[in-house]
Write a structure and sequence with these properties.
Main location (chain B): membrane
Strand order of the largest sheet of chain A: 1-3-2
Distance between the termini of chain A: 55 Å
Helix content of chain A: over 70%
Structural class of chain B: mainly alpha
Number of domains of chain B: 2
Number of helices of chain B: 17
Number of strands of chain B: 4
Oligomer: heterodimer
Radius of gyration of chain A: 30 Å
Subcellular location (chain B): Cell membrane
Family (chain B): Belongs to the ABC-3 integral membrane protein family.
Radius of gyration of chain B: 29 Å
Membrane topology (chain B): Multi-pass membrane protein
Protein name (chain B): Manganese/zinc/iron transport system permease protein
CATH superfamily of the largest domain in chain B: ABC transporter involved in vitamin B12 uptake, BtuC
CATH class of the largest domain in chain A: Mainly Alpha
Largest interface: A-B, 61 and 63 residues
Amino acid sequence: MELAEYFKLVFTDYTLRTITLGTAILGAVTGMLGSFAVLRKQSLLGDAISHAALPGIAIAFLITGAKDSNTLLLGALVSGLVGTFWIRGIVKKTHLKSDTALGLILSLFFGFGMLLLTFIQKQPNANQAGLDKYLFGQAATLVESDVWLMAIITGLCLFVLLLFWKEFKILLFDADYTKTLGFNTKTIDILITSFIVLAIVLGLQTVGVVLMSAMLLAPAAAARQWTNSLSKMVFLAAIFGAFSGVFGTAISASQTNLSTGPVIVLVAAVFVIISFVFSPSRGLLFKQIRFIKNRRDLELHKTLALMHHIAETHDDISHPHAIKLLNNFQGFTRKTLQKLVEKNYVTLDGNMWSLTKTGFETAKNLYTKQTTEDE
Amino acid sequence: MNSAQIEIQLIASLVAIACAIPGTFLVLRKMAMISDAISHSILPGIVIGFFITQDLNSPLLIVLAAFTGIITVVLVEYIQKTGLVKEDTAIGLVFPALFSIGVILIAKNANDVHLDVDAVLVGELALAPFDRLLISGVDVGPKSLWIIGVILLITIALLIAFFKELKISTFDKGLAASLGFSPAIIHYGLMTVSSVTTVGAFDAVGAILVVALMIAPAATAYLLTTDLKKMLGLSVFFGVFSAISGYWLAHVLDASIAGSITTVLGMVFLLVYLFAPSKGVIAVMYREKQQRTEVSLLTFLLHLKNHNEVEERHVNHLREHINWQKVRAKTVLELALKNNMILIDNDVVSLTQKGDTFTSKAIDYIITNEDAQIEDMKDDFFLFRG
């Protein structure tokens, strides 16, 4: 199937429409909540939680014996929350650092989940096939009720986010101040963490345990580069997430043998790379350009200062001097000289240069006042 | 026990030791999550290596995959250096992207060959003894045993050779640099060893178990000791213990060996986490409670010292004044009495000679901002602790 065909079919074909909607909503909600995870320096929490959700899925299946996705997700939610609070407990009560706690919970829960999964596979119950789709996710298994569930939870997230916007924001940037204002920081903290867990669990069916953390981080990290305002960042992250979902689904649907999860993650990674390079204020490209420009300005200033130094010794400031004089000076090039002429700081006459009045004045004030204008 | 069982346990134990050594340093250097990143992002290296060699145990594949691991570390550090995102975000961005590339490469090209993602993630230790290494037709044991054995030997040799350097650079980077040890070489050396170990272990035990075997024994040991050599020894012990008992758990449950080993590791950690003598949760909670009472006691004694008026020192008044609940007030009063700090005469509390000296000293420490000294002073004065 070609990409164009996909976009034609997306409005008519039931499966495609469901999957596309599902991944778009998922991308939006994870992007939104991911912004908080990234800003709270809890980026890897998503990775740990998504792995920690696995035993919950297995236990929910063991108890109910049914493969109803809502029950399994509930199990995942509980075990994700247990993992999260255990991580907090380890960091708070022992001297183990957060990276160790994350890695511990991640690998231990996941290993336990694998133990349960392999244990279930050996059970004489034909119903168990397909549990391992939660490892990498299978967007193709999304049905309309799943999308409804996602939409409802997204709506709930949005509602809570708007309701407690002020609290979330202040906790994010100044936790101590929040406490002194009398907010119950613990409750706000638990609320936002629980919603992050919820968003992760929601994505397990589509993207899977292993790649879910990227869904949380990538849109937020990309959005962070374009703005310094929290509301804009959350909004942008939601957009980036939704687009990653749609494009990822489109690309994987247009090729055979491409699972949706990894493709969505790669599309999100492309968003990140573009943002890293091309963002106007923080991006690497413009940073490099600014860096080169600053260096050139500095060289120009240094040359001008040297000229001023030489010209100072004469009564007549525009007394001509040989260009040779400047040759051994660091920062002097033919180009800087040309530039100085253009700016009317210097006049050239054959092999001689002389400082103009403006040039002399500028050079005199070069290090005594802060020049803001660009050279 | 048949020979296959012994071989499996031997491989598992060797993997556990090989992981515990770099794991200890990763935990101490706060880089535990790097091992998670490496274990995921070696996937594209393994896949590409597999396409070239068509053999999961070829040395070239290990080299390529370890190289991908180092690329991951370099990429993470590069992104972090740009200052655009924090380190943890950088890790979280790099490895899923590389892992996705690996998964897609497998899905597009390797449908008909023996390599699937589940096997990479979880490994299948039970099959390890069946892949034999033949040297000129003679069976010398399972291939994975040899691979992990060689990696372990190299790791131990490096550990012994560079123990001093590793130790100094782990605990005091500045000192290490000023003594002339290059922090970069030690850092990348450790990263290389971690990558090679991860790769060597992955096809026997899978990527996730590698992470568990690196972090869990070291973290468990760290709760029990603060001596580097003891910590290394303990993590090796916990690793091997979990490997062997995990194998038998899997045997009983008929489930994945890697999963069982991780589960045992988890249970060992949970036990130590709860019951470790000085750093376990229960010990910490007990100590916190003790300190809370002792701080209350100090506040109480300071109050007594500040007031000579009889009405200020009446038992009932104190309760209102310091706003303690009845039980709390009673505990503090009893503690003070037991330690001979106060006298109660007709419900009026007064400091004894000892209580007075204690309080004066405490005030001295508080006003000179040496609050920590009060902790030491308690040993001299207290007969009973809170």
